[in-house]
Design goal:
- Helices cover about 65% and strands about 10% of the residues.
- It is an alpha+beta fold and about 700 residues long.
- Among the domains are: about 5-225, Rhopdopsin 7-helix transmembrane proteins, CATH 1.20.1070; about 475-540; about 550-695, Heat Shock Protein 90.
- It has a five-stranded antiparallel beta sheet with strand order 2-1-5-4-3. It has a five-stranded mixed beta sheet with strand order 7-9-10-12-11.
- The longest helix is centred in the last third of the chain and has 64 residues, at about 445-510.
- Residues about 225-230 have low confidence and may be disordered.
C-alpha cells in the first residue's frame, strides 16, 4: 500500500524532485530554442519534458503518492507514449507500421484506467484489504505500460537504418531509462505491497537527467555525441548493476517465500538467504567471474578488446619498476606480457650460443618442467623468421601435418596450461620467447591479441637487448682489467720458469753430491713442468685449442675425482659405462674438477654428489648431480658462465667459465639443469673417440671419391 516518506527519505526525495524539475525546465527550453525545428517529434518532446517537470514539481511540493502527483505521472506517461509514436513518424515509418497503432491505443487506455483506481484509493473510505488490492492493481497496470513501451522502443531502434539510429540514439537511451526505472519501481511495489521509499526518493533526479538526454537528441549537432566511458568505469558500473540485480532477485525470492507463511515459510526464507549469500561470497570475488565480465564488456560495449592507453601505461610501469620488489628485468618482462592477456603465469626463453632456446626466467609458473635446452634451433629459427605469435592449441591440432607445429618441443606440446608463444624480435633477430599460460576464462586468440602481443614483444626485445649490451660492455671492461693483470703474472711466471730451467741445467753440471743432485733435479724439473703447464693453460684461453687428437677415459677420470674428493665430501659413482672420448684427459679432469667442487660447495656436508657416466653411441656423457640449494634461471643464464660473477662468498667466478671453455675446446658441450631448493645437474657431452674416427674415415672416403 502507499507510504508517506518520512525522515531521511523525505529529505532526499524533496531534493531529488526539485533537481528533476529544474533539469526538465532546462531541457524543455533547450528543445524549444535549440532543437531541430524540422523534426516531427519536436512538439511531442517539449510536451513530454514539460509534463515530466510538472510531475517532479508536484512530487516535491506534495508527495510522490499524492493524487495530483499521480495524475501528473499518468499525463507524463501518455505524453511519453505519444513521443514514442512520433519518433516512428520522424523516422518515416509511421505509415508502414500501422499494426503498432492498436498497441499504442491500448497503452493509452491502460494508462487512463489508472484514474478510477486513484479515486477509489484516495477518496473513498474502503476496507484496508481493498486498498491493498487497488494499489497492486495500479502497480500491475504500470508494469504493463512499461513493458509495452519498451517493446515499442525496441522495434523503433532495432528496425531503424544505421543513419536513423544515430539520430535516435539519445532519445532511445532516455526513454529506455525512464521505462526501465518505472518497471523496476512498480515491480518491487507490487511484490512488497508498498511503495519503495528509496526508489521513489531518487526518481525525480533520474528523470531529470534522462530528459536532458532527450534534449541532447533533439539537436543535430549533439545527436551524434557518444558516451564513451573508460573501461574501468564501465567495469565497475556493470559490476554494481550485477550486484544490485542479484540483491534484487534475493529480495523478490525471499518476499515470495514469505508468502508460504508459518514455520515452513521462515525456514525456507532463511535457507535461501544463506545459500544465496554463500554463492555470492564464492562467485563475486573470483578471478573467473571478473574475467568473464571483462570479456563481455569488451565484446559488447567497445569496438576494441583492449584499452591501448591503459595497457601501455601498465606495461611501462611494470617494466620500470626496479628494486627487489619488482623482480629481475626478465621476470618483469614476463609479467608485463602476461598482464595484457590476463594470463596467470609465464616463462621467458632466450637463445644461447648454439641458437637453442634456454629457460631464463619464470613468473608464477614453478611447476612447469622445462628441459635444457628448452627448444632446438629449428623452432627458434621459425619464430625468428615468421615473427608470428603462435596459438599453442592451434599448433597442437596441426601436429603431424608437415607444418611448423612439428618443430614445437614436446614438453610445450604436453603442457596443458601453455597457451601462447610470443617471439621477442629486435632488429630482425630473436632476443627471447615468452610462453604464456592460459587465462582463467579460456578463449581463442584473435587478430587484436596477435597485433598487441607482437608490438609489446618488440618493445620487450629492446629492453632485453639493451640489458645484454650493458652486460657485454661490463664484461669486456672486466676482461680488459683481467688481461692487464694477468699479463704481469704471465711475465713473472715466464721469468721464473726460465730461471728454474737454467738452474736445473747448471745443477747437472756443478752438483758434486750425486744424491743431492738427483733430488734437486727431480724437484726443479717438477717445478718447471708445473710452471710450463700453467703457462700453457693461461695462454690457451681464447685460442679454442686443447690437446687435439688425444683420448680420455671418462670412467678413469671419474674414479680419480672420487678418490680425490672422497676424503672431504661424499662423492659416489652411480653408473660407469665404458666411454673413451676424444679430448685431453688432463683438461677434461680439470673441467670436471671445477664442476664437482661447485657441487660440493652447494651441498650440505652429508649430502653426496653423484657422478653418472653413460653413452648413446655417438657421445659420452657424464652428469654431476647434487641436491643443494640450486640456482635461479636468471643466474644460470646471466651469471653462472660469466667470469668474475660468483654466488659464493669470496669466489672469483671463473671455475664454471673455464670448465665450459675447456669442454667446448674439445668439441663437446656443457648443459645445466637447476631448480631452486632441489639441486643442480651439470651434463658434459663429448664425442666418442670411435665415433669420431669413423666419421673422419667417412669424410676422407667421400673426399677421395669426389
Amino acid at each position: 500500500m502507499p507510504v508517506v516518506e518520512t525522515g531521511l527519505f523525505a529529505t532526499v526525495g524533496l531534493a531529488s524532485n526539485v533537481l528533476g524539475a529544474i533539469a526538465c525546465i532546462a531541457a524543455a527550453l533547450w528543445i524549444l530554442r535549440k532543437g531541430d525545428r524540422s523534426r516531427l517529434d519536436r512538439h511531442a518532446a517539449i510536451v513530454a519534458v514539460a509534463l515530466t517537470g510538472l510531475w517532479s514539481g508536484l512530487a516535491a511540493a506534495l508527495t510522490p503518492v499524492s493524487l495530483a502527483a499521480e495524475l501528473a505521472e499518468s499525463a507524463r506517461n501518455i505524453s511519453l507514449i505519444y513521443l514514442l509514436f512520433r519518433l516512428f513518424a520522424n523516422d518515416g515509418r509511421d505509415e508502414s507500421l500501422r499494426p503498432i497503432r492498436p498497441l499504442v491505443i491500448t497503452l493509452f487506455l491502460v494508462e487512463l484506467s489508472q484514474l478510477p483506481l486513484m479515486i477509489l484509493s484516495m477518496r473513498l473510505a474502503v476496507p484496508a484489504e481493498f486498498v491493498v488490492l487497488t494499489f497492486q492493481s495500479a502497480a500491475v497496470l504500470h508494469v504493463l505500460v512499461s513493458i509495452g513501451a519498451l517493446v515499442l522502443l525496441h522495434n523503433l531502434y532495432a528496425g531503424a537504418a544505421a543513419a536513423s539510429q544515430r539520430l535516435l540514439r539519445w532519445s532511445a537511451i532516455a526513454l529506455a531509462g525512464i521505462w526501465l526505472y518505472d518497471l523496476n519501481l512498480h515491480t518491487v511495489a507490487y511484490l512488497s505491497s508498498e511503495s519503495p521509499e528509496l526508489l521513489l526518493a531518487l526518481r525525480g533526479s533520474l528523470m531529470g537527467l534522462l530528459t536532458i538526454a532527450l534534449a541532447i537528441g533533439s539537436h543535430p549537432a549533439t545527436a551524434g555525441l557518444r558516451f564513451s566511458p573508460s573501461r574501468a568505469v564501465a567495469f565497475r558500473s556493470l559490476s554494481l548493476l550485477l550486484i544490485g540485480g542479484y540483491l534484487l532477485v534475493m529480495v523478490v525470492v525471499t518476499r515470495s517465500l514469505a508468502l508460504l507463511g508459518g514455520d515452513l515459510g521462515r525456514v525456507t526464507q532463511v535457507g535461501f538467504l544463506v545459500m544465496a549469500s554463500v554463492a555470492a561470497i564464492i562467485w563475486l570475488p573470483s578471478a573467473r567471474a571478473r574475467g568473464w565480465l571483462r570479456v563481455m564488456l569488451a565484446k559488447h560495449l567497445f569496438h576494441h578488446r583492449y584499452d591501448y592507453r591503459a595497457e601501455w601505461l601498465r606495461f611501462t610501469e611494470t617494466m620500470g619498476r626496479g628494486g627487489a620488489s619488482g623482480g629481475s628485468l626478465q621476470e618483469r618482462a614476463v609479467k608485463a606480457m602476461a598482464d595484457i592477456t590476463d594470463s596467470p603465469a609465464g616463462i621467458l626463453l632466450a637463445p644461447n650460443e648454439e641458437a637453442e632456446l634456454e629457460l631464463v626466467a619464470r613468473w608464477q609458473w614453478p611447476d612447469l618442467d622445462v628441459p635444457s635446452p628448452a627448444a632446438g634451433y629449428r623452432f627458434a629459427g621459425l619464430l625468428e623468421r615468421s615473427e608470428f605469435v603462435f596459438d599453442i592449441d592451434a599448433l597442437r591440432a596441426r601436429v603431424g601435418t608437415a607444418s611448423e607445429a612439428d618443430d614445437m618441443p614436446q614438453w610445450l606440446r604436453a603442457a596443458p596450461a601453455a597457451w601462447a608463444v610470443v617471439p621477442l624480435i629486435h632488429f630482425e633477430r630473436l632476443a627471447g620467447v615468452v610462453v604464456l599460460a592460459r587465462p582463467p576464462l579460456a578463449r581463442a586468440l584473435d587478430w587484436e591479441d596477435f597485433d598487441l602481443l607482437r608490438a609489446a614483444g618488440r618493445q620487450l626485445a629492446s629492453y632485453l637487448a639493451e640489458q645484454a649490451g650493458q652486460q657485454a660492455l661490463m664484461e669486456a671492461a672486466r676482461f680488459d682489467e683481467f688481461n692487464r693483470r694477468i699479463a704481469f703474472v704471465m711475465h713473472d711466471i715466464k721469468n721464473l720458469a726460465s730461471q728454474l730451467t737454467l738452474l736445473a741445467r747448471n745443477a747437472e753440471k756443478h752438483a758434486e753430491n750425486p744424491d743431492f743432485r738427483a733430488d734437486m733435479l727431480i724437484t726443479l724439473r717438477n717445478s718447471a713442468d708445473k710452471l710450463q703447464t700453467l703457462l700453457a693453460r693461461l695462454g690457451r684461453y681464447g685460442t679454442g685449442k686443447v690437446g687435439g687428437g688425444r683420448e680420455g677415459n671418462l670412467g678413469a677420470v671419474a674414479k680419480r675425482l672420487v678418490q680425490r674428493f672422497g676424503t672431504i665430501h661424499p662423492v659416489k659413482l652411480t653408473r660407469n659405462e665404458l666411454c673413451v672420448v676424444q679430448g685431453d684427459a688432463e683438461a677434461l679432469e680439470q673441467a670436471l674438477q671445477h664442476l664437482v667442487q661447485n657441487a660440493i660447495d652447494a651441498s650440505a656436508s652429508d649430502a653426496p654428489v653423484y657422478l653418472d657416466i653413460s653413452s648413446d653411441g655417438l657421445n659420452g656423457r657424464i652428469e654431476i648431480v647434487d641436491s643443494g640449494s640450486g640456482m635461479t634461471p636468471e643466474f644460470v643464464r646471466g651469471g653462472l658462465f660469466k667470469p668474475f660473477v660468483s654466488s659464493k662468498d669470496g669466489g672469483f667466478g671463473i671455475g664454471a667459465f673455464e670448465a665450459r671453455e675447456l669442454v667446448r675446446a674439445m668439441g663437446g658441450r656443457l648443459n645445466v639443469e637447476s631448480r631452486e631448493g632441489l639441486g643442480t645437474r651439470f651434463i658434459v657431452s663429448l664425442p666418442l673417440a670411435a665415433a669420431a674416427d669413423l666419421l673422419g674415415q667417412d669424410n676422407q672416403f667421400k673426399s677421395e671419391v669426389a
